[in-house]
Amino acid sequence: MLGHFIKGLTTAIPVMAVVAIIVFLLLFLAPGDPAAIMAGENATADTIAQLRVALGVDQPIHLRFWNWLSPILHGDLGNSIYWRQSVVSLIGQRAGPTISLAVTTLFVSVCTAVTLGVIAAARVNSRLDRAIMGFAVIAFSVPTFVVGYVLMFVFAVRLGYLPVQGYKPISAGFWPWLSHLILPSLTLGTVYVALIARITRASMLEVLSEDYIRTARAKGVPRRSILFRHALKNAAVPIATIVGNGIAILISGVVITETVFNVPGIGRLVVDAIARRDYPIIQGVTLLFAGVYVCINLLVDISYRLFDPRIRY
Predict the structure, then answer these.
(1) What secondary structure, in 3-state letters, does 21-56 show?
(2) What is the pLDDT of residues 120-135, one digit of tens each?
(3) CA-based, 20 to 30 A from 252: which of 85, 219, 264, 265?
(4) Is 299 helix (H, G, I), strand (E, B) or coil?
(5) What are the phi and psi torsion angles at 79 (to 5°)?
């Protein structure tokens, strides 16, 4: 286990190096002068020249890359052009809402999707199975922002059960915190639920056709025990894979969801940075999200051996 973890870390390092190169090139090889773009249309020539020196765009590209990467290796993601603060501090200020939204979405989505997938597999070709799979197809096809506006209109505007937008920290009370996360979590988790439910159903159907499942049925093992204790455990590897890969959906969905529901998280910070052409924030958040995604996939790889001891690395 430890050896595989170390091997995974050595694999993650070149991946993050490639991501860093791509993020750097997105700015410095993009059309136009980045200093002029950041300075704005009304900036003077002196201002643009000073910003070019500050950004290091007057240097050779290999020196620019090293001058940009060296502080990052020490945990410094640079300073925001617009807010005049360090990118790390800005991300730290916005991390609370995003972490709350991601954790609630993951918990609700995985529990709901796995349950729906198991039920669909247990009632294969029934009306319930077709209804669950129909919901999965529709949920996977509808854009996230459409789901958000529909939920907002029904449960916040028309019924008034939940707040329309905004965010409350958990220090303001559990219910105010949770009530502001319900609609964003449902919006963000809809596609995730559809994806996991379909994979769970397919994986469960494959396991339920195995000989040991038929033997358990013949011995009179209760159906619930067969489904959740025997079949689900052996079907967990594909499910864990799609849960890890679905993190990319959550990362991209966070930006849209936080914008729709006016949640002051990291996703909303990215949108504001794009509107203000604040490239240090865009680069820093991109590296952060890439690092989170790589770490999640490393944990998923390690979980394979926990679910199936036959797997060896």
Answers:
(1) HHHHHHHHCCCCCHHHHHHCCCCCHHHHHHHHHHHC
(2) 888 888 898 899 889 8
(3) 85
(4) helix
(5) -120, 145
| pLDDT interval class at 292 (50, 70, 90) | confident
- CATH code of the region 92-307: 1.10.3720.10
Segments of 91-225 assigned E as strands: none
Q: How far is CA 288 from CA 184, 269, 295, in A?
A: 22, 13, 11
CA distance 85 to 72: 16
Nearest Cα to 105, choosing from 194, 190, 201, 196?
190
Q: Is 86 helix (H, G, I), strand (E, B) or coil?
A: strand
Q: Which of 121, 141, 129 is nearest to 238 (CA)?
A: 121
E strand intervals along 105-174: none
Helix axes 87-122, 236-245, angle to 10 degrees: 150
Burial class (CB in 10 A: 0-12, 13-18, 19+), 246: buried
Q: How far apart are CA 83 and CA 274, in angstroms?
A: 13
The amino acid sitting at 13 is I
Task: Confirm if 189 and 111 have CB atoms less than 8 A apart.
Answer: no
**Which tokens hold the place of 303?**
């979980």
Q: Is residue 126 classed as helix, strand or coil in its secondary structure?
A: coil
Q: State the Rg of the chain over Cα.
A: 24
- pLDDT tens column, 207-254: 888 888 888 888 888 887 878 777 887 787 788 888 877 777 777 788
Displacement of CA 107 from its chain's centroid (Å): 13
Candidate from 11-15, 49-53, 54-58 with smallest mean pLDDT: 54-58
> Which residue ranges make up each domain of the chain?
2-73, 92-307
Among residues 310, 301, 300, the alpha carbon closest in space to that of 234 is found at 310
pLDDT of residue 80: 83
Per-residue tokens: 97:
């809402």
